[in-house]
Amino acid sequence: MSFSLKRFVVVAAAFGFVLSPAYAQMSHEGMDHGPAGHDQMDHDRSSHMVEGVGTVVAIDLESRRIGLDHAPVPDLKWPAMRMAFKVGDGVDLTAFQPGDKVQFTLHRVEKGAYPIAELCVRTSDAMVPGLCMPRGEPESSVK
Question: Contact 113/85 with Cβ under 8 angstroms?
């Protein structure tokens, strides 16, 4: 089996694990997945962008999804877990590979799961506010 085929099999298996029924059946009680409580959102970045840190476990370039083993996300009341996320068009998924330690920014949306709007490699275990924000973008801008 060639190296690239082996890598594809490993990535596909890892991504399948992230999307497995065990994850679909986990309790989401107490977790913020939508706009409830956010009807009167301010129009600054902090009201619609939530940051977190994690490790890449799988990447699906075709469907623009990434599997992350992420730390707790207190702003959303999420515990640490493995999740698959849809990734916005502005993120170059080819720049990442399984095992990368990353920081991500989720965009709060009206309905459905929060997509990743920003993703970057991190060098520290601590979250750095605004680390993945495009350079030159003011802190209070609206995306």
Answer: yes
DSSP states of 55-84:
EEEEEETTTTEEEEEEPPBGGGTBPSEEEE
Long-range contacts of 58-63 (CB under 8 A, 24+ apart): 58/11, 58/12, 58/14, 58/15, 58/16, 58/17, 58/18, 58/84, 58/98, 59/11, 59/15, 59/93, 59/96, 59/97, 59/98, 60/15, 61/93, 61/94
Angstrom distance (rounded) from CA 87 to CA 99: 18
What is this structure's pTM? 0.67
Tens of pLDDT along 67-115?
999 999 999 999 999 999 999 999 999 999 999 999 999 998 888 899 9
Torsion of CA 16, 78, 72, 24, to 10 degrees: -10
In this predicted structure, the answer to whether residue 36 has a pLDDT above a threshold of 70 is no
CB 40 within 8 A of CB 84: no
Residues 6+ apart with CB under 8 A from 130: 51, 139
